[in-house]
Amino acid sequence: MSASEIDDYLLTLPDDQRRALDELRRAILAVIPDAEQGISYKLPAFRAEGKLVAGFGAFSNHLSYLPHSGTVLPGLRLDAAGYDCTKSSLHFTPDRPLPAALVERLLEARLAEIRGD
To answer: Which residues lie below 8 Å from residue 29, measured CB to CB, with a gap of 6+?
Structure first.
């Protein structure tokens, strides 16, 4: 995995999507500064403790945060906070990026899951 792979992915996006996902990337790295960065399943991903802990992607109508888990998002009840969610992705838009505090909660939940807390 290589951080330059994420750089290359971001360069392909429109400015507003690139800015929002770059901000998300910085928020992830603020919580897990030693995360391994790269591409997994053709999308940017972050690995910690040997496991995928987060990822993101740009799509035609939304951006997605990917916890690489089917239990993190349902457990946090983010639909009640006004975000559209599936079991495995949290959708947002460039004009409403994910707050750093929420990213931290998402990462903490995934890391706790990995550690068996």
So the answer is: 35, 46
